[in-house]
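Researcher: Re-running this chain for the archive, since the previous output was lost when a drive failed. Same request as before.
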Amino acid sequence: MTRLRAFLFFLYFGLMSVAMNVGCLPVLLGPRGWTVWAMRCWARLTLFGLRAIAGIGMEVRGRPYIPAGGALIASKHLSMWETIAFHLLVADPAMVMKRELLAVPLYGRYAQRAQMIVIDREAGAKTLKGMLSAAKMRLSEGRQIVIFPEGTRHQPGAPADYKSGVAALYGYLGAPCIPVALNSGLFWPKAGTLKRSGTIVIEFLPPIPPGLARAEFMAKLEGAIEPATARLLAEVPGVAFPQPGDKPGLACG
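Model: Regenerated structure tokens:
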């Protein structure tokens, strides 16, 4: 991908986001569904720009595993891309997000009105209790709880670092957990500009049934997401990453 295409995309993304955030302010005065609709429009326009300007498309695998009603979804987090795409991939996502994002001008207002699940990572046990309570309510409304088990974006090929929050949610909600793997970080990295054109692949994996002990659940979750993510990373032409069983963190290419 040329620097020019990346520059043009981010120019488009910035101007479009400002226009959408300002132009859709009236929806904040209406029902929550209006805000959900506005966020879906923003996500659709973002992915359109990625495809039309930057040459980055999307492929969704494992569609039969995408839940239509209330469910817990645990996704690998390599890029900003998935925080946008989930608005279109599932019907009504309630994403677990850090409180700092509420300070983003206007975006924070939309996230609050859409009733995302906000956590304060400095509050310890108090924020865990609030997250569990909010997730239980969102699940009862038939929404999809989306959590990134590692808590933040990681570089492709970096060692896994799963936090305990996802296990707490799984145990408290008593719902199946759908693992998700992806390769987005090869195209829209954690830091810097867009890296290459091509197709971002996101794959929904078979659900993990409810009722497992914490250690067994965490082993199954990581054992599902990490090999699938390594496989998706390795599918990208010209990029080589270690496969499961190899030493972690030795990506090259």
